[in-house]
Design goal:
Layout: H1 11-41, H2 47-50, H3 56-90, H4 96-111, H5 114-124, H6 132-157, H7 160-168, H8 173-203, H9 215-226, H10 229-260, E1 266-269, E2 272-275
Antiparallel strand pairs: 1-2
Helix pairs in contact: 3-6, 3-8, 3-9, 4-6, 5-6, 6-8, 7-8, 8-10, 9-10
Length: about 280
């Protein structure tokens, strides 16, 4: 018997795989125990390291940082989606005056490392402390460029017959794009858009480098005061995980609602376009 990519292991191979797996599990458990022991000897699990997270005044500092992080994510994600739609469609334009500038903008900001872009914008603005604008603009330009590629790929994934049928009844390129192709492409690219939004939310942590208010900046103040790097890293990591899970759950809910309602379905009956918007 054989599978598609490999032969099914026999009794000897199965025992060998089991032994190798047990060895690796033992190595991983021993490594984890060594790390925990090292942290314990460095007094990283003492009550003093975790006390700031049950002190009301310090918890308020973290909550304020959480609010700034959510604000930065909202201010970045919504314009980034709009940016991606405009430039993604622009890269598919038949007019070179629109297509080539869109291509240059998307490829440039997609290639520049995000941290370098944020620091450059921050330096142009004069190294102002608490500069949320540099963080948000950097996130918009970078994530918007990635979303533009997602939009372009999603539109190209729509079967060509849909556009050809629309052209055959006399629709213009703009009508075909907005009525026929985009509504269907949204279903295709929605998971990728959600993934990029999660990336944008996590990337708000880079505001730490330009002193922008947020979770990482609040955590910086805590570990500089209490020298509890590990505790702060664990707590901030858990907060970001919860935020990303909530964002993913919201996106999945919208996707199920969008799919179940039949939105984005386009049909051509008797020479007329019928769309569920």
């Amino acid at each position: 018997m054989s599978a598609v990519l490999f032969d099914v292991p026999g009794p000897r191979a199965a025992r060998r795989h089991m032994i190798i797996g047990a060895i690796w599990i033992t190595v991983l458990v021993a490594t984890a125990a060594l790390v925990v022991w090292k942290l314990y000897t460095e007094d990283q699990f003492t009550a003093a390291q975790w006390e700031p997270f049950v002190t009301p005044d310090l918890v308020l500092i973290l909550l304020e940082g959480l609010g700034w992080t959510i604000l930065a994510a909202v201010l970045a994600i919504i314009p980034a989606v709009v940016f991606g739609l405009l430039f993604g469609v622009g890269k598919l334009s038949d007019h070179a005056a629109l297509r080539w500038p869109s291509w240059l903008v998307v490829e440039f900001f997609r290639a520049v490392p995000l941290l370098m872009l944020i620091i450059f914008i921050w330096s142009v603005r004069g190294f102002s402390q608490g500069d949320l604008f540099a963080l948000v603009l950097g996130l918009v330009l970078y994530n918007g460029s990635v979303l533009a590629e997602i939009v372009r790929a999603g539109i190209n994934a729509v079967p060509k017959g849909q556009a050809e049928a629309a052209y055959s009844i006399g629709m213009r390129k703009t009508q075909v794009m907005s009525i026929v192709q985009l509504p269907q492409a949204i279903k295709i690219m929605l998971p990728s858009i959600v993934s990029q939004c999660v990336v944008a939310l996590k990337d708000t942590s880079l505001g730490f480098y330009v002193l922008a208010p947020g979770l990482t900046y609040a955590g910086r103040e805590l570990w500089r005061t209490f020298n509890n790097y590990l505790a702060v890293a664990i707590v901030l990591g858990l907060i970001y995980i919860i935020l990303n899970l909530l964002l993913t759950a919201l996106a999945n809910h919208l996707q199920r609602r969008y799919s179940s309602s039949g939105a984005g379905e386009v049909t051509i009956v008797a020479g007329e376009v019928q769309a569920k918007a």
